[in-house]
Amino acid sequence: MPKTRELCKDIRDKIVDLHKAGMGYRTIGKQLGEKATTVGAIIRKWKKCKITENLPRSGAPCKISPRGASMILRKVRNEPRTTRQDLVNDLNRAGTTVSKKTISNTLRRQGLKSCSARKVPFLKPTHVKARLKFANDHLNDPEEEWEKVMWSDETKIELFGLNSTRHVWRKKNDEYNPKNTIPTVKHGGGNIILWGCFSAKGTGRLHRIVGRMDGAMYREILANNLLPSVRALKMGRGWVFQHDNNPKHTVRAFLDEQFPGKWIGRRGPVEWPPRSPDLTPLDFYLWGHLKAIVYAVKIRDVQHLILRILEACASISFAVLLSLCEEQEKRDALTIQHNGQHFEHILTVVRNL
């Protein structure tokens, strides 16, 4: 049965007033355009309760007892990957039959909702220990020290955007309309891989990586791009180079020869903790900001993609770059707060990107 229309309080009050004036149910109904049965129900309620407002309604009783709700809440907190069907089966064994929808409603009332699990690098106990050591060692470093760092990393930028996160609004059987599809390209033509660097003074050179990068190619990239970027940004004598623990970055002899005592990385003067993209401002912050600018327009081909990347890189403000460097202390503090595990990216500058 469909839900009936509810009369507003003014009409209910008018019905009562006309009844007090001596008018019958049918007459009141005809005058106000309402059914006589509706008029009668409102008058009987007024005679019994002396009010015309709606009384509180109890609603349907909850099928899951407080004890059952505590049980499923405890299970999803201990095992977040538990499915709704698992919880339905647990309650069935306890003598309570519910639907998946009831499970969802119960968990939602507790502030929990189903979300896609974030993918993060796997951390061994040694990785966690190294992350905590780095964060504690550098927690109180002055912001000026991080402003002297030249950060570097590689990233992949797809020709047609991030396919896995694109959604379209379409009608049934309209899935192959060109407006509703995402083109793909065979033989590696669908993306480009870049090496880039930046500091608080600006963005450095970008280098497109063709083929598989190894130690020899990485040394060549550094030789042709790192020092020219440092000189172009006028970083002075106190600058420091940072790269992560990727195996291809194992070029200690080259770095010790070219930049003695001036690098952060794999077993360097300052060793960068392994599997820690959330500790560098490039991986999760600047690259993401750059890609958002690139994908703001429809990309036609690889040459257009490269042009958009260069334009996006030039458009990033010094204020953003400076904030990313200065908030290294906050990234270290979040690492300590989360006992060395990965943390949510809630830094101030990220909200403003």
Automatic annotation (TrEMBL):
Q: Which GO terms describe its molecular function?
A: DNA binding
For biological process, the GO terms are: DNA integration; DNA transposition
Protein source organism: Pygocentrus nattereri
Q: Ranges for the Transposase Tc1-like domain?
A: 70-140
Annotated protein name in UniProt:
Transposase Tc1-like domain-containing protein
The Sleeping Beauty transposase HTH domain extends over 1-52
PANTHER family assigned: HTH PSQ-TYPE DOMAIN-CONTAINING PROTEIN, TRANSPOSABLE ELEMENT TC3 TRANSPOSASE-LIKE PROTEIN
Domain of life per record: Eukaryota
